[in-house]
C-alpha cells in the first residue's frame, strides 16, 4: 500500500522514540539525560551488560556502539516485533492516534480475515483451557503434575486440553456463531471426505498455544494422551496465520528476556521451553515440529548474536544438531554464529533440570562449544587416521564444509581453527623446533632397533660423503620449491615434518615453513623468511646449481610441476632411508649369525633405492645433469656391493 506524502514524517514527529524503545529496554539512569533526549541502555539486539545503545530523541534515531544496529522508530519495531514495514507503521500509527489511509479493497479484506482468524484462535485457547479443568482431563492433569507444572505455569503458558470426540471444538465455535470457513481456515477442523460434518484436528491431546511475536495465537501444538496414537506431537496445519518454518515457540517472551541479557537457548520441544523458562532461563525457544530452518535461524539472530543450541542428548538430538551446522555454515556472518550445549546422553533439558536442578543446566550452557568444534567432532569422532589416505579424506571433507561459508573472513578463520585442531590431532607430541647451536632440533631418524647412523660401523652407506651431499640437494630442492609454492606446504606437511635436515639452516627453514603455514602467515613468504632467518639462508639455497635449474623453482606459479617435484624428491629420500634402516639392522645381526634372510632384505632395500635412482637418472637426463647423477649412482652401488660382499664373506667364514 502506498502512503501519502508526509505521512511517515508526521508519524515520526508525533512519536517519542525513547517511549517506543523504552518498552523493550531498561534505561541507564546514570548515563541518560532525559531532559535533552539523550538516552542510554543495554542493547536489545545483542547480549551485553554495559549501556552501549544510544537513543537521540530529538533526531529520532538510535545507534548501538556494540553491534552497530541503527535506525528509527519504524525499523526498531520491525526488528523487535519481527513484522513487516506496513505492520510496523500500523502499530506506531495506532500508538500515535493517526488513522491510516484506506487500503485497496483486496488488502483490507485480507487483513480483516487474518484478524478474524486470530479471534477464532483465541476462542479456541479459552475452550481448551476450560476443558483442562473438567473431569475428562484427569489423565492430562496427572501427566502435567508429574512433569512438575504448577497451576501458575499452566496459566502462564495457557496450556489446555482437547477432549476426546470428533466435534467438541467445532460444535462450541459454531454455537458461538463462528463461520465454518473461519474454523477450517484457522486449521482447527478438517473437512470430511465421507460427506459428513468437519471434524476437530485435535482430540485427546494436551494443547500448547503458539503465539507470534505480537502475541496473537497463530497455531497449536498437541501432545497425544493415547500412547498408541500415530503422532505423539501434532502441530496445526499451515494457514494464513501460521507458517511453521517462519515462527518459533515462545518467541515473544524469549526476545524480551534476551534483551535483558539472558542467553538465547534453542530447545527441542514445548516442555523443554516451559521447564527452562520456569527454571530461570526465560530466553528459550523451540522450532515447531521440524528441523530448524534458515528462516528460523535468521529469527534467532535477530534476537541474539550467538544462540545456544541445546537439543536432546540422544541420537536424534545429535543428528538434529549436526543438520543445524550444515544449514548454518552458508548463513554465517561476522558476529552471528551458534554454540552448542551437549546434553547428557538420553536426557533433554527438562530431564536434566528435574534431576539435577538449574545449576546443572547453567553449567552446560557455560560449557557450550563453538560450532567449529562440533563440526570437527562430527568429522573425526570414532575415526582412526593411521594412513595418508585417511588423513587426505578428512582434509577433503573439511575443505568441502568450509567452502560452504560465504563470508571470506569467517571462512578464513574457520580454516585457521580447523588447521589448529588438525595440527594437534596429527602431531600431539611434535618435536621441538630448531634451536641455534643444537642442530636441527630433531633426533636422527632411527631404525627398528637403533639409530640409522652408527659412525663406528665399517659397513655404513650413510657415512659416504656422496650420499650426504645428494640428500642435502634433495632437501634443498624440496624447501626451495615450497618457498616458491607455499600453497603446497599444507598438502605435504606430514612429510615436511619428518624431513631430517642435517644442515641447521635447512632445519630452521623447515620448521619456519611449518609454523607459518600452521598460523596462516604465508603471505609475502620470501620476505617474511628473510626477516626471520636473515637473507643469507635463502640466497645460499637458491644459489645451489641443482636448485637454480629445477623447473619447480624456475617456473613460479606452475603448481603441478612443483607438486610432482616435491612428491618425487620425498619418495627418493624415503627409499634411501629405507635402505639405511635395513643396513643398520643388519649390522646388529651380523654380530651374531648372519643368514640368507639378511642378504635378501638388503637386496630388496637396495632394489627399492635403485628404482628411485633410475627414476632420478631419467629426470637428470631430461634436465641435462646426467653426468653428475651417474657418478653418484655408481658410488652408491659400489658401496652397496662392498657391504653385500662383506656379508657373504662373513657368512662363508663362519
Secondary-structure map:
Blueprint: H1 7-14, H2 17-22, E1 38-41, E2 53-56, E3 61-64, E4 70-71, H3 73-81, H4 85-96, H5 105-132, H6 138-146, H7 151-156, E5 160-162, H8 168-175, H9 180-185, E6 189-190, E7 199-200, E8 205-211, E9 217-224, E10 233-235, H10 251-259, E11 265-266, H11 270-278, E12 284-285, H12 294-303, E13 308-309, H13 315-328, E14 339-340, H14 349-356, H15 358-366, E15 369-370, H16 371-380, H17 388-403, H18 408-426, H19 465-484, H20 493-497, H21 504-518, H22 525-533, H23 535-543, H24 545-548, H25 551-554, H26 559-590, H27 596-622, H28 626-653
Parallel strand pairs: 11-12, 11-13, 13-14
Antiparallel strand pairs: 1-2, 2-3, 3-4, 5-8, 6-7, 8-9, 9-10, 14-15
Describe this structure in words.
The structure is a single chain. The protein is an alpha+beta fold. The protein folds into four domains: 90 residues, Zinc finger, CHC2-typedomain (DNA Primase, Chain A, Alpha-Beta Complex); 140 residues, Alpha-Beta Complex (DNA primase DNAg catalytic core, N-terminal domain); 182 residues, 3-Layer(aba) Sandwich (Dna Topoisomerase Vi A Subunit, Chain: A, domain 2); 189 residues. It contains 28 helices and 15 strands. The chain has a five-stranded mixed beta sheet. A four-stranded antiparallel beta sheet has the order 1-2-3-4. A four-stranded antiparallel beta sheet has the order 5-8-9-10, covered by helices on one side. Helix 11 packs parallel to helix 14. The protein starts with 6 loop residues before the first helix and ends with a helix. The C terminus is likely disordered.
